[in-house]
Amino acid sequence: MKIKTIIDKKYTETEIHVCKDSLDDEVKNVVHELHDIFDESLTGTDERGNKCILRLLDMVSFYAEGQKVFAVDDSGKYTISNKLYELEERCKDLGFVRISKSEIVNFRKIKSLDLSITGTIKVIMKNGYETYTSRRNVAKIKEMLIMNRGGGNERNT
Question: pTM of whole model > 0.70?
Fold first, then answer.
């Protein structure tokens, strides 16, 4: 198998071409693996300006600040071009839940909830990232807890 990388200003999006004289198992496997990688991913820009491919299941949080939307994973923060409502729709079956008007989090990445602050709840993620939700959004989190405890829509990561 040959792998070729072409960097040229005429390409504004990443393109992947799989070429062979026949459709055999190798081609099918490569195409299948590419779909696994890219169907549940998005692109973002890291803090140094590098374009990155981000796996949705690795994301801890998506939040809006100012006019930008950010994605957070264990490695850092990325600027993304998607709108928060688009991400919420796209990620709802992956275990993401809206915790505020400006943020959705990956339910499977929640470590704990701190109920000690009056009126708000601190959401502590497994990677140490902390955010807040209001008591009015607790019903959504409880619903996710019940779904996951009852053998609901769980996916392995």
Answer: no
